[in-house]
Amino acid sequence: MFSRHRSGASMIVGTLALLFAFSTQAKPLDIPQNLDKIDLSFEQVRGLKKDAVTTRLGDPLSIEGPVGEPAITRWEYADFYVYFEWDTVLHTVKKPSG
């Protein structure tokens, strides 16, 4: 009933598409050699409780909240904010430089 044969043109287009897809190459990623000097501690607190954040990062400069339901609290540090839902870190946000 239906033909399973493909036309020559569609096979060529398909082959060219596959060749193009496989011929693209990834660009090298430059990774700094001094990774120990980069402070990523603010990014590594998601899921922690408030007391664990205080232990790891110290006392915040200020605390705002809780606000809303569920209760959201924001702790301010020198370079970033830490957002909590109840007692657990939801997210960290780096302060804009400028």
From TrEMBL:
- Which keywords accompany this UniProt record? Signal
Top-level taxon in the UniProt lineage: Bacteria
Endpoints of the signal sequence:
1-26
Name this protein carries in UniProt: Outer membrane protein assembly factor BamE
- The organism's lineage? Bacteria, Pseudomonadati, Pseudomonadota, Gammaproteobacteria, Cellvibrionales
